[in-house]
Amino acid sequence: MADKRIIAVVGATGAQGGGLVRAILSDASSGFAARAITRDVTSDTAKELAKLGAEVVATDVFDLESLKKAFQGAYGAFCVTFFWAHFSPEKEFAQAKAMATAAKHTGLKHVIWSTLEDTRKWVPLSDSRMPTLMGKYKVPHLDAKGEADQVFTELGVPTTFLLTSFYWENLIYFGMGPKKGPDGKLAITYPMGDKKLPGIAAEDIGKCALGIFKKGREFIGKTVGVAGEHLTGAQMAAALTKAMNQEVRYNDVPPEVYRSFGFPGAEDLGNMFQFKRDFQQVFCGARNPDVARSLNPSLQTFERWLAQNKSRIPLD
Ligand SMILES: NC(=O)c1ccc[n+]([C@@H]2O[C@H](COP(=O)([O-])OP(=O)(O)OC[C@H]3O[C@@H](n4cnc5c(N)ncnc54)[C@H](OP(=O)(O)O)[C@@H]3O)[C@@H](O)[C@H]2O)c1
């Protein structure tokens, strides 16, 4: 343990960070040790990580001084922000800035920043094809992440910019799984037309991140996108039909209809899907499953993920 290089992992009790902590702990030959960052070291998940061999430290990413302590003595850090905890792009940017500042202060050698596209580079605020939200964003939960890239660069933090994909776990936890329509038939509803949605098993993001830390230098200053597979809504529905042994249809709705669904974040997600639909080449092109597989040879396809997880998808 003492001679291992420490990776401080933000969001260690969550999807991305948790995947990385478990990947580090289950790869004794990686040369890395995991420092799990959580606000509550007494939670069941935090205790479980400690039992598996992680060093668990209490930190709130809004608190710069506690972040600096959490990064002190580490070789690297995995940085992720939590848009859906507060729905504020400004807070998300502030979290990213605090992490970049702490990384610079502590002289980390390699940081992975879990980012996404600032969609305003492709859809400026003046573009009326999708509404401007919160005054100055097109896709608030993407734009502020992309905007924060420059903070890591300007501070001179040795960073890999990791572009993640739609978690297939959204079908379990995020209300995006099959639902019964008025006809009693199950359907998944995404405003993607016939375009492909890059998706990934959430734990594979952490495994890819470990691959990036292992390769080290060659990835510093680079942007790397990861996905398990690119699938159309129809292909996802066909895979769900096969796995669940009952018909699941793909319900393609216009983005404006999706935006009007009224649940918290519906407009943001409607714009997100529209961006992925209208800029498929940009979005899919940045996320090559072959690259992800080279970082993480056990990368799952949707079919394989479904075989493991189909019973966890709630069917109402
Ligand atoms: N869902 C998707 O398809 C998808 C795809 C790509 C990117 N993303 C992005 O992923 C990000 C979230 O990552 P995730 O899914 O890995 O998160 P997650 O599973 O929701 O978990 C995040 C963890 O971070 C911790 N946390 C929350 N606020 C914190 C704070 N202020 N200080 C320190 N720790 C805090 C919490 O742990 P404790 O309670 O233990 O502190 C929580 O367990 C979002 O910004 C989202 O936009 C999501």
Q: What gyration radius follows from the Cα positions, in whole Å?
A: 19 Å
Strand order of the largest sheet: 3-2-1-4-5-6-11
Q: Give the proportion of residues in helices.
A: 40-55%
For the secondary structure, the number of strands is 13
Instruction: State the distance separating the first and last CA atoms.
Output: 47 Å
Determine the number of helices (DSSP H or I, runs of at least 4 residues): 14
Write out the distinct hetero groups bound to the structure: NADP nicotinamide-adenine-dinucleotide phosphate
Largest sheet: 7 strands, parallel
**Helix-strand pattern, N to C?**
EHEHEHEHHEHEEHEEEHEEHEHHHHH
What's the pLDDT, averaged over the residues?
A: 97
Poorly predicted sequence stretches spanning 5 or more consecutive residues: none
Give the strand content: 15-25%
Give the overall shape.
globular
Instruction: State the secondary-structure class.
Output: alpha/beta
Protein model, in words:
The chain is of the alpha/beta class. The chain is 42% helix and 18% strand. The chain has 14 helices and 13 strands. The strands form 3 sheets. Strands 3-2-1-4-5-6-11 form a 7-stranded parallel beta sheet, with helices on both faces. Helix 5 runs parallel beside helix 6, helix 8 (202-215) crosses helix 13 and helix 9 packs parallel to helix 14 (302-309). The longest helix is centred in the N-terminal third of the chain and has 17 residues, at 89-105. The protein is globular, with a radius of gyration of 19 Å. The structure holds NADP nicotinamide-adenine-dinucleotide phosphate. NADP nicotinamide-adenine-dinucleotide phosphate binds at residues 11, 13-17, 38-40, 43, 46, 60-62, 80-85, 141, 164, 166-167, 170, 174.
